[in-house]
Design a protein that fits this description.
Elements lengths: L1 E6 L7 H14 L3 E4 L3 H7 L4 E3 L26 H13 L4 E6 L1 H12 L3 E6 L15 H22 L2 E6 L6 H9 L4 E3 L7 H13 L5 E6 L5 H12 L3 E5 L11 H19 L5 E6 L2 E6 H4 L8 H10 L3
Parallel strand pairs: 1-2, 1-4, 4-5, 5-10, 6-8, 6-9, 7-8
Antiparallel strand pairs: 2-3, 10-11
Helix pairs in contact: 1-9, 5-6, 7-8
Bound molecules: 6-O-phosphono-beta-D-fructofuranose.
């Protein structure tokens, strides 16, 4: 069986560990993996198409980013483009495709499956917003990066007695904001999934000051509100000295944590095992501590539930 492998969508720390595991597990069984560069965009012109072997994936387990590079390929939504890619893969003798990416990338894979290829998805996005898996590759690293930034900002916030509004990634999901805010002891966490009241936040900031707390940390998911506007509003309404930090793409890079490397390694190996078992059209999920296949139909059928209890806990712990 000839397998093609690509990474797609936003990069996530741990993608390289997953690539390594796919290639080496496949090699162990005598299967050949062909890498494709720049995600689905690379499928249209065969960019970087080459066999990967044990040596090609040496010394990458600890590196962020992806050696296969990645891209967002909106043109891949068009049926004619999907036809072209499926035909090209068939010409190369490829029978199966493994995609490391988010659910948008899995839709591209599903389109190729409809055109006769076998497809397995490995969930990787720092946002952790894929339905059907408790964890995605890259989330743990991004949360640790954000929590570390919060620690550093807290040092300067306490020294100068300031309010810090810290914007983390998550256009549609607040999982990074919640986890890093909980880990960093944030006074307020704003996420797209939960309503918030700026007046109430300002009232709490002033109450905290009255009780002797001279600094505060507010973590905002980028999809919840503009941190710049929040900072300005807070300053205007409370008179407290306020600063804004946008962490941005810092959260996407860096050495993957051990947890992400282990998850990626297990998921990469499982993708090959699933192909050997004859599975098709599934995502490798991490469900209640176990790696297991999740049908794509299920992955596309819902939205991950936001852990409202943990959100409430963060709120309670920061109350005065
Ligand atoms: O990959 C997920 C993500 O990092 C989101 O959190 C963020 O909103 C988006 O990608 C940014 O995308 P880009 O790098 O294409 O600007």
């Amino acid at each position: 069986m000839k397998i093609a492998l690509l990474t797609s969508g936003g990069d996530a720390p741990g993608m390289n560990a997953a690539i390594r595991a796919v290639v080496r597990r496949a090699g162990y069984y005598g299967l050949t993996v062909y890498g494709i560069e720049r995600g689905f965009a690379g499928l249209l012109n065969g960019e970087g198409f080459r066999p990967l072997n044990h040596r090609s994936v040496a010394d990458i387990i600890h590196r962020g980013g992806t050696i296969l590079r990645t891209a967002r390929a909106p043109e891949f939504c068009r049926a004619s483009v999907q036809d072209q890619a499926a035909a090209w893969l068939r010409e190369q003798g490829i029978e199966a495709l493994i995609v490391i990416g988010g659910d948008g990338s899995f839709r591209g894979g599903a389109a190729l499956q409809e055109r006769g290829l076998r497809f397995i998805g490995i969930p990787a996005t720092i946002d952790n917003d894929i339905y059907g898996t408790d964890l995605t590759i890259g989330f743990d690293t991004a949360v640790n990066t954000a929590a570390d930034a919060i620690n550093r900002l807290r040092d300067t916030a306490t020294s100068h007695e300031r309010v810090f509004v810290i914007e983390v990634m998550g256009r549609c999901a607040g999982f990074i904001a919640l986890a890093s805010g909980l880990a960093g002891g944030a006074e307020s966490i704003l996420v797209p999934e939960m309503e918030f009241n700026l007046e109430e936040i300002c009232r709490r900031l002033l109450a905290a000051k009255e009780h002797g707390r001279s600094h505060s940390i507010i973590v905002v998911a980028e999809g919840a509100a503009s941190a710049m506007k929040m900072g300005e509003e807070i300053k205007k309404r409370t008179g407290l000295e306020t600063r804004v930090t946008i962490l941005g793409h810092l959260q996407r890079g860096g050495t993957p944590t051990a947890a992400d490397r282990i998850l990626a390694t297990q998921m990469g190996a499982a993708a090959v095992d699933l192909l050997r078992r004859g599975e098709n059209g599934v995502m490798v999920g991490y469900v209640k501590g176990r790696i297991e296949p999740v049908p794509l139909a299920e992955v596309f059928s819902g939205e991950k539930t936001f852990p409202a209890e943990a959100y409430e806990l963060a709120h309670i712990l920061s109350l005065y």
